[in-house]
Design a protein that fits this description.
There is one protein chain. By secondary structure, the protein is mainly β. The strands form nine sheets. The protein has a 19-stranded mixed beta sheet that branches. Strands 1, 2, 3, 6, 7, 10, 11, 13, 14, 17, 20, 23 and 26 form a 13-stranded parallel beta sheet that branches. It has a 13-stranded parallel beta sheet with strand order 22-25-30-32-35-37-39-41-43-45-47-50-53, with no helix packed on it. The protein is rod-shaped, with a radius of gyration of 44 Å. The termini are far apart.
Length: 749
């Protein structure tokens, strides 16, 4: 019994080994199979009856026979086998498992499930050539018809070289292996690549290749490199994403990549399309990245992109290896619309900085600037996706910047200026940065929740409706608003000296939460309205023809010098804090506004709200209206002073002058409820203090009896307190009373 159990274990092990061997790709060929080399050398037809091998011994063998039957054909050894006639055979029935699935109704899409093992195997060192390139066009295939596509059921494993020299469409089934599949130049129409191919070698497109179509899907996730010497055509059916992750190399002038999609289909390219001046067909390389940008003889490194009403993505969000390195001399990008009106969409999706140095336009092939591009550009909402355009763009559609992403126009060099056509709008949910050095840019209709930054010395002009809600920053040069308004922008910042915001042609001169450095400037053609909802400081200058209006509940602190002699400044809401100076016709403080000042106002001040005077100088009149309020320590006025409303001293206030009336006229009016001599905390209020014409706090409120008065002609100061005069009067009265009493006593006697 033990021996039988042991024999049983051996049998199971043997069976397991056999299953592994039989199930591995090329296992039958590796084990040998029937050798038909002599038949092939003699140009005899071959009928397969299982695994069959042709062993080449060098040189070129041209075969004019045909191969039929049932089995697997392996080409091994060294040398080249050329097939001039079509051959058709099938896999043995026990190896057929492939299922062709078609879905989609009016727009059918075919996929291949559970592909069969390879039926044609080209071993390393061997070359199988289909066609002669000039005569016979022989291929190996057993074709199954699916809607709009003919599928080859004989899958190919290429570890050596498969050389396609036929002048017709070639379908190789599902391709595997690690060798070279090469289609020669000028052999239209090209290769069809339906299915998911485990091939990990190099694909050489000499004339044309269809990477997907409206009716089938293509995936080659393990392909290392593609040599493109013709038209590498990519397509995606409705609702599908077709991804090509290979690095693509060109070697001569005249190659391109074309994109077509249907409905919501997307083609995603996550490799790099580069020139190759080194290496081999199986391993193309580039000697230096700069060679992609340098003009070479015969424009050999010029390569192009044609987007034909398609939706295309460059990058997959996992790296920043840019798809198309090159400039207007070495690459072209044509973006077209289909006859049914479908426009192109090009998306950039990277997780780091990338640069497009060529224009997106819409001409034909190399004559790219002959027409504008018909489509839209998207900077995907991938964190860190920072795209720079260094050439003026020539597409007529919209530009969308996703959240967390940025688009920079210009790289700061004189050769790297960029621009967008004003025909499209900008949807900015990330960051738009303009950094042109010499050429100004005009940008139209910016919306979204992102920010806009002017960062170059060349002027940028914003036109049309501006509805973006992010921050506006001027880091260099001048930002001009012509026709639109920055009213929707959350904040406006000019952080460096020399930065200028020009609103003289704006439809509405409103800015929000204004901040800036000394030497910055904001100019407006009419009224400049600053709406602050937070505390901000602006150290530059404000200049507006019709004055400045402060709105919003926040505090705007101005530290610079502002000269607007013919205009009115209005504090409608919140607080305007002045530590610098304002030259204007009038400063009007409305009931919900506050001026907090330690600087100089070269204007008449009309206070219907609150003035917090902390060393404030008014070179003009000061009028405080009923319901208004004055607080603080000191206010100097060179013009007439008219008072009403209320007064509240600084809690740390001591005795002294509150309103230094430097004018000749006496103060008109009093604060509400504060007549001459009224108690204000620990002090008394007088309107005749200082030099006799100032408002002052003086003395101790407890030293004056209720109901006592102060002579209007008296001078009230800290050296001549009110109580002294009151005590003297009381003494005189007491002497008179005593004298009268004594007189009455004498009369009685």
């Amino acid at each position: 019994m033990r021996a039988q159990r042991g024999g049983c274990r051996v049998s199971v092990a043997v069976i397991a080994i056999l299953l592994v061997v039989l199930g591995s790709p090329g296992a039958f060929a590796q084990s040998g199979g029937r050798d038909v080399t002599a038949d092939v050398l003699a140009n005899r037809d071959v009928t397969l009856s299982g695994d069959t091998v042709v062993r080449l011994t060098g040189g070129v063998t041209t075969y004019t026979g045909v191969i039929r039957g049932e089995g697997v054909l392996t080409v091994g050894g060294t040398g080249t086998l050329v097939l001039l006639k079509d051959s058709d055979f099938t896999l043995p029935a026990d190896r057929r498992r492939e299922k062709v699935v078609t879905v989609g109704g009016n727009h059918p899409v075919t996929t291949i499930e559970n592909p069969d093992p390879p039926a044609v195997i080209v071993q390393r060192g061997a070359t199988l050539q289909y066609g002669s390139g000039s005569g016979g066009d022989g291929v190996i295939g057993h074709f199954v018809q699916a809607p709009e596509v003919s599928l080859n059921a004989l899958n190919h494993q290429v570890d050596g070289t498969l050389d396609l020299a036929v002048h017709r469409a070639v379908n190789l089934g599902v391709i595997s292996g690690s060798g070279l599949v090469k289609q020669r130049r000028s052999t239209w129409p090209g290769i069809e690549l339906p299915g998911t191919h485990p091939f990990s070698g190099t694909l050489y497109v000499g004339t044309g290749a269809d990477f997907g179509s409206l009716h089938y899907l293509t995936a080659m996730p393990r392909v290392r490199k593609v040599v493109n010497q013709g038209s590498f055509i990519h397509n995606a059916p409705d609702g599908e994403v077709v991804t090509d992750a290979a690095d693509i190399y060109s070697q001569f002038y005249g190659n391109d990549i074309n994109f077509h999609t249907w409905g919501s289909g997307v083609v995603r390219m996550s490799g790099v399309y580069s020139w190759s001046d080194n290496g081999s067909d199986t391993d193309p390389t580039l000697s230096a990245p700069s060679r992609n940008f340098a003009t070479v003889p015969h424009s050999d490194n010029k390569r192009g992109i044609n987007i034909e009403g398609a939706t295309v993505t460059w990058g997959d969000g996992t790296n920043n290896r840019f798809f198309l390195p090159g400039n207007e001399k070495t690459v072209y990008i044509d973006m077209h619309a289909e006859g049914n009106g479908t426009r192109s969409v090009l998306t950039f999706d990277y997780n780091g900085p990338v640069t497009l140095d060529a224009p997106i336009s819409g001409g034909r092939y190399h004559d790219t600037m002959a027409d504008v591009g018909r489509g839209d550009v998207v900077i995907a909402a991938t964190r860190g996706n920072a795209v720079t355009f260094t050439a003026p763009q020539n597409y007529d559609g919209d530009t969308t910047i996703g959240e967390g992403a940025s688009l920079r126009l210009g790289d700061g060099s004189p050769q790297g200026d960029s621009a967008l056509l004003p025909t499209g709008k900008i949807v900015d949910n990330g960051e738009l940065i303009v950094q042109n050095a010499t050429r100004g840019a005009e940008l139209a209709r910016i919306g979204g929740k992102g920010s806009v930054t002017q960062a170059g010395p060349a002027t940028t002009t914003l036109t049309g409706e501006l509805s973006y809600t992010g921050r506006t920053t001027v880091k260099a040069g001048t930002l001009v608003v012509a026709g639109g308004s920055l009213a929707a922008s959350t904040a406006v910042d000019l952080p460096v000296a020399g930065a200028t915001l020009d609103l003289t042609r704006a439809g509405d001169g409103t800015v929000g939460n204004l901040s800036g450095a000394e030497g910055a400037a904001v100019t407006a053609g009419r009224t400049l309205t600053v709406r602050d909802t937070a505390a901000t400081t602006f150290g530059g200058t404000l200049n507006a023809t019709d004055g400045v209006t402060k709105t919003g509940a926040g505090t705007l602190t101005l530290t610079g010098k502002h000269t607007t002699p013919d205009s009115t400044w209005t504090v409608r809401e919140g607080t305007l804090a002045l530590t610098g100076s304002v030259q204007a016709r009038q400063l009007a403080v409305q009931p919900t506004g506050t001026v907090r000042a330690g600087g100089t106002v070269g204007a008449a001040v009309d206070n219907a709200g609150t003035v917090e005077a902390n060393g404030m100088t008014v070179r003009g009149s000061y009028t405080q209206r009923a319901g208004a309020r004055l607080t603080g320590a000191r206010l100097s006025v060179t013009g007439a002073v008219t008072l009403a409303g209320t007064f509240a001293p600084d809690p740390a206030q001591g005795p002294g002058v509150i309103i230094d009336n430097q004018g000749a006229d006496r103060i008109n009016g009093t604060f509400d409820g504060l007549p001459e001599g009224a108690a204000v905390g620990a002090f008394r209020l007088t309107y005749h203090g200082g030099d006799g014409n100032d408002v002052a706090l003086t003395g101790d409120s407890g030293a004056i009896r209720p109901g006592s008065t102060v002579s209007p002609a008296a001078t009230v100061s800290s050296s001549g307190p009110v109580w002294w005069f009151s005590a003297a009067g009381a003494l005189v009265l007491l002497i008179a009373v005593v004298f009268a009493a004594r007189r009455r006593v004498r009369n009685r006697s």
